[in-house]
Amino acid sequence: MKTWKKIVRILVLVLLIIPAAAMIAVQIPAVQTALVGKVTETLSKDLDGDVRVGRVMLSFPNNLILKDVDVIQGADDTLAHLGKVLASVKTTSLLFSQEARIRRVSIENGRISIHHINDSTTNLAALIAPLKNRPPKETTGGLPWETIQAGRLTLKNIDFSTDSLHLQDIHLYARNIRYSETVSARID
Questions:
Q1: Residue 129 in 3-state DSSP?
Q2: Of 32, 172, 179, 183, whose CB has the highest number of CB atoms within 10 Å?
Q3: What's the order of all strands across the beta sheet hosting 99-113?
Q4: Are 32 and 57 in contact (CB under 8 A)?
Q5: CA neighbor of 113 nearest in space, from 77, 161, 81, 75
Q6: Of 59, 25, 53, which is closest to residue 38 (Cα–Cα)?
Q7: 116-123 — which CB contacts under 8 Å span 24+ positions?
Q8: Terminal-residue alpha carbon distance, the chain
């Protein structure tokens, strides 16, 4: 009977230590940088462009903070520079689901510049074109989720500009956002 008690104790100890060790490991800046490096590398492969992140912080239990994020289309067209991106993520969805659920996203202090490359396409459309054109059931590479769902988006101090439109200090509430050939949403 003592052997079974020892086995049960060891199993319980292992089941407690592994998650605790993982939570401690993701608090180490080098581990955070490596994890985000993998994600940005994957995104850059899936996009016609490059994603760069200056600094990464994970705060317990479910906040991801990215500082100095650059999204570059093609060789040198900076589509967005974002000072700070905070994402509050439902952690269990990242591990046990095909859908990543992000409760809220807050983007602060940045610049988003969307402009026409030619008469029929913008730098944003060119950036995400490879995502639209890939086969639906591609299994090699890519992000591990079929869909990414975001709940609430907050933009603070963002300079948003296009070829013929400049927006500033606008408060919007959007839901049911979908992207195909165009972006559609219900906006209040």
A1: helix
A2: 32
A3: 49-59, 63-73, 77-89, 99-113, 147-161, 166-167
A4: yes
A5: 161
A6: 53
A7: 116/163, 122/162, 123/73, 123/74, 123/77, 123/79
A8: 66
| Rounded Cα distance, 67 and 81, in Å | 10
pTM of the model: 0.64
The amino acid sitting at 92 is T
CA-to-CA dists, residue 173 to 43, 71, 79, 110, angstroms: 27, 24, 23, 19
Q: Tell me how far apart the alpha carbons of residues 132 and 110 are, in angstroms, rounded to a whole number.
A: 26
pLDDT in single tens digits along all 188 residues of the chain: 678 888 888 887 787 787 777 767 767 777 777 877 887 887 777 787 888 888 887 776 678 888 899 988 877 788 899 999 988 877 666 666 777 778 888 889 999 888 888 877 888 888 877 777 666 555 545 556 677 777 788 888 888 787 765 555 556 666 666 655 555 555 55
Matching residue, tokens 């459309």:
125
CA 97/CA 144 separation, integer angstroms: 9
Residue labelled with tokens 């967005």 = 80
- Listed residue (141, 163, 127) closest to 51, CA to CA: 127
